Amino acid sequence: MKDFGSLASLTPERILNTVHTAQRLPHHTWRELVPGDEVFNVGKSATSPNEKYYRLLAGQPLDDCLKRAAIRNLRIWQRGIEVHDQAERNFVDALPSVPNDVLAEFAARDRNGEFD
User: Fold this and answer.
1) What is the Cα 88 distance to its own chain's centre?
2) Bridge-partner residues for 47, per DSSP?
3) What string of pLDDT tens digits covers the 116 residues of the chain?
4) How far is CA 113 from CA 14, 51, 78, 108, 116, in A?
5) I need a surface site. Which of 11, 47, 78, 104 has the fewest CB within 10 A?
6) 3-state SS, one letter per residue, for the chain
7) pTM higher than 0.85 for the full model?
8) 78-89: buried (b, 16+ CB within 10 Å) or exposed (e) per residue?
9) Residue 46 CB neighbours (<10 A)
10) Which has the closest alpha carbon to 22: 100, 68, 91?
């Protein structure tokens, strides 16, 4: 939402539409810096969007939030991201691409049940 004045225009239908859209698109966790973010203070827990994928595949420690987001997003990238309108296209186009070798390694390990 662009401003608090937009709250008045929320309806249950608009909320559900947003939820359904979010289910199809990759997620960012609260600590990821993504294109367009404005950094006010750099702390110790900021990461790049792809860092969670590399850490997952390297067996490095991840909290549950990053691990769930990494697995979920890699599965979405694997099957292809479905976009329905220009706003979704703009969101997906702003995401950093996930390298093919990361997707291939994840796919092989996921097929073997490593991430269940």
Assistant:
1) 13
2) 32
3) 567 777 778 888 888 888 888 888 887 777 777 667 777 776 667 777 788 999 999 999 988 988 999 999 999 999 998 888 888 898 888 888 899 999 999 999 999 999 98
4) 36, 22, 15, 9, 5
5) 11
6) CCCHHHHHHCCHHHHHHHHHHHHHCCCCCCCECCCCCCCCCCCCCCECCCHHHHHHHHCCCCCHHHHHHHHHHHHHHHHCCCCCCHHHHHHHHHCCCCCHHHHHHHHHHHHCCCCC
7) no
8) eeeeebeeeeee
9) 14
10) 91
Residue with tokens 């220009």: 86
Structure tokens at 42: 């750099």
